[in-house]
Specification:
The chain is mostly beta strands and about 60 residues long. It has no helices and six strands. A six-stranded antiparallel beta sheet has the order 4-3-2-1-5-6, with no helix packed on it. Pfam families: ROF (PF07073). InterPro entries: ROF (IPR009778), Rof-like_sf (IPR038626), Rof/RNase_P-like (IPR023534).
Length: about 60
Amino acid sequence: QHLTLTLELRSGETLTGKAKDIFSRKQVEYLVVEENGALRELRLDYIVSFSNPGIGKVV
């Protein structure tokens, strides 16, 4: 099961997508999110908060 998350980024951008994977590259961790059919790799340290109705908001 992939959670649908609403993510707030440090840039001020807010996006909603399905969390698909998490991985590490060169000692940097990334979350892979599917948004409107496209995959985005988001650095975890660039995510200010995420939320889902089932888990609430995590800052």
